[in-house]
Design a protein that fits this description.
Helix content: 25-40%
Structural class: alpha+beta
Distance between the termini: 13 Å
Strand order of the largest sheet: 1-4-6-5
CATH topology: uncharacterized conserved protein from methanopyrus kandleri fold like
Radius of gyration: 12 Å
Number of domains: 1
CATH class: Alpha Beta
Number of strands: 6
Shape: globular
Largest sheet: 4 strands, mixed
Length: about 80
């Protein structure tokens, strides 16, 4: 499983109505990487949890995520991938 987020939202709490989404360091913090390396990790992973404008946008551009499968919380996109 790959958990990936844009660096600038690590540790943030996103709120939208009753939805509270915590971008917890315990879950998302690992190593910093380039966008291209992150996209390669997404390609290799069977389960992906991603949050952030940049990484989700790039995943959509590569065809890994369908735009209609994105949940936006406080203006920040969140998407998940499960490959069967």
């Amino acid at each position: 499983m790959l958990a990936i987020c844009d660096a600038e939202i690590l540790g943030a709490t996103l709120r939208d109505g009753e939805i509270v989404f915590k971008v917890r360091e315990e879950f998302y913090k690992g190593f910093k990487t380039t966008v291209d390396e992150a996209l390669d990790l997404i390609r290799q992973s069977t389960i992906v949890n991603m949050v952030g404008r940049n990484i989700v946008k790039k995943a959509v551009e590569r065809g890994y995520v369908h735009p209609e499968a994105i949940l936006t919380i406080s203006g920040v996109p969140h998407a998940q991938i499960v490959k069967m």
